[in-house]
Amino acid sequence: MEPGSSPLTTHVLDTASGLPAQGLYLRLSRLEDCGQQWTELKKSCTDHDGRCPGLLPPGQMKAGTYKLSFDTEGYWQKRGQESFYPYVEVVFTITNETHKFHVPLLLSPWSYTTYRGS
C-alpha cells in the first residue's frame, strides 16, 4: 500500500446508464462488542467518478468485520427511477490490516453485484 493512501476504497458503477454512480450516499461501519453492535466509522458520498477513496485513514484499519451500506433508494429517486432494493449492505471480513481492500459495487435499479477488487 502506498504511504498516505486509504486501505479501504469503493467504486460504484451505474450499469443501467453505463456511467459512474455519482452522489450515492454510503456509510462504513465495523462490528464491535463481540459481534453485537455496529459502530459507524464514516459517512460519505461517491464523487464524480463513482469513487469514495478515503473511507479509512491510513493506520485505522484493524482486523474485523466491516459493512458498507449504500443508499440505493435515494440514488435512484434523485434520477426519477423506481428501484427494487432500498439499500445495499456489503459485509466483509478483514483479517490482515496491512493489505489494501477495494469493494466495487455494480448497480442497476433491479440488481447489484459486488466482489473483492484490487
UniProtKB/TrEMBL annotation:
GO biological process terms, semicolon-separated: purine nucleobase metabolic process
Domain of life: Eukaryota
A GO CC term attached to the entry: peroxisome
First-listed, main subcellular location of the protein, grouped into a coarse class: other
GO MF: hydroxyisourate hydrolase activity
Keyword Hydrolase found: yes
Subcellular location: Peroxisome
Enzyme class per UniProt: hydrolase
Record's keyword terms, sorted: Gamma-carboxyglutamic acid, Hydrolase, Peroxisome, Purine metabolism
EC number, as in UniProt: 3.5.2.17
PANTHER family associated with the record: 5-HYDROXYISOURATE HYDROLASE, URICASE AND TRANSTHYRETIN-RELATED
Assigned protein family: Belongs to the transthyretin family. 5-hydroxyisourate hydrolase subfamily.
Oligomeric form and interacting partners: Homotetramer.
Identification of the protein by name: 5-hydroxyisourate hydrolase
